[in-house]
Design goal:
Length: about 325
């Protein structure tokens, strides 16, 4: 029974001592994210019944139509983190600019900034397909007690102190890392607690699932086209199976459990790809590497990419180590 398993709250406290700067602040921050996830989960689960599906009527800075659930999730995460006075700044897919959380107040000693994709897989909200939330946490680089700056957010992914996602699927899970492996917790809705259901999650080094929107095939770079053809050839353990949910979190989660590769490459339509470096690719790349997987833009390790803008996009290849290396080989050979 789940009650015998460790709860997320217990796990966070128990593992607090493994944090380099352990002061309890990161634990409280993770607990706030846990709370916000439960609040959003409650709304997601009854999406068809309440007025939470459909477009909100505005577009975000990426020019995308914001869905009502995008806005709801954004508000709930920002409110929960702000109310608990646990961070000095927040950046979100749904906010044009970063938000300073009374960081100019001398008494405000919080040292963490959070970057979030409040609702990932927005195109799946109305059709009852699993969606998610993604978060990434950094220590600020500017002095505590001074106004938070853009440079506190534009840090390389390798500087993350924690990252994770929530997947609102057949069950709701919160999966995260603080740089000591990846652990997954499943929400028991009857009790309202997350329980450690997937300790030490790891990508199999090899897999037979590839996830890419093949509708964009003709626009892909030759290297990616060659890799997709390789996945489809009758040879050895191929052809691989094509699975594409259209929610990054859900495709990543499945591939981490079963072995597989997710690709959102650049294309003639999206020269830098579609996914955002800071609150989609970096957190998933940190998780992937902590779970013995790999991630790059085809050439450069995602976590080594130097950020220049809050909402910048990058090509993204992520998953089982040997599969990502094979895709990178095709990219190099096609140069
Ligand atoms: O519909 P496409 O072009 O294949 O894009 C799907 C991808 O875009 C995303 O929906 C982008 O994320 P958001 O929904 O947070 O904007 C990913 O979750 C998903 O993998
Ligand atoms: Mg997203
Ligand atoms: Mg989103």
């Amino acid at each position: 029974m789940s009650e015998q398993k460790q709860t997320l709250g217990e796990f966070i406290i128990k593992n607090q001592s493994s944090f380099q700067y352990s002061s309890g602040e990161l634990s409280s921050l993770l607990n706030s994210i846990r709370l916000a996830a439960k609040i959003v989960n409650h709304e997601v689960n009854k999406a068809g019944l309440v007025d939470i599906i459909g477009a909100a009527g505005d577009t975000n800075i990426q020019g995308e139509d914001q869905q009502k659930l995008d806005v709801y999730a954004n508000d709930k995460f920002i409110q929960t983190l702000t109310k608990r006075n646990i961070v000095c700044g927040i950046a979100s897919e749904e906010e044009d600019d970063f938000i300073s959380i009374n960081s100019q107040d001398k008494n405000h000693q919080n040292k963490y900034v959070v970057l979030i994709d409040p609702l990932d897989g927005s195109s799946n909200i109305d059709v009852n397909v699993s969606v998610g939330t993604i978060f990434s946490i950094y220590r600020r680089v500017t002095p505590v007690g001074t106004p938070v700056q853009l440079e506190d957010f534009l840090q390389k992914g390798s500087e993350q102190v924690a990252a994770g996602y929530v997947v609102y699927g057949t069950s709701t899970m919160l999966v995260y890392t603080t740089g000591h492996g990846v652990n997954g917790f499943t929400l028991n809705p009857a009790i309202g607690s997350f329980y450690l259901s997937h300790p030490n999650m790891e990508f199999p080094e090899d897999g037979n699932i590839y996830s890419v929107n093949e509708g964009n095939y003709i626009h892909f770079p030759q290297g990616i086209k060659n890799y997709i053809k390789y996945c489809q050839e009758e040879e050895g353990d191929r052809p691989y199976t094509s699975r594409y949910i259209g929610s990054l979190v859900s495709d990543f989660h499945r591939n981490m459990i079963k072995g597989g590769i997710y690709l959102y490459p650049q294309s003639s339509k999206n020269p830098n790809g579609k996914l955002r470096l800071l609150y989609e690719c970096n957190p998933m790349a940190f998780l992937a590497e902590q779970a013995n997987g790999k991630s790059s833009d085809g050439f450069t390790r995602t976590l080594d990419v130097e950020p220049t803008e809050l909402h910048q996009r990058v090509p993204f290849i992520c998953g089982s180590k040997n599969m990502v290396e094979k895709a990178e080989e095709f990219m190099r050979n096609a140069q």
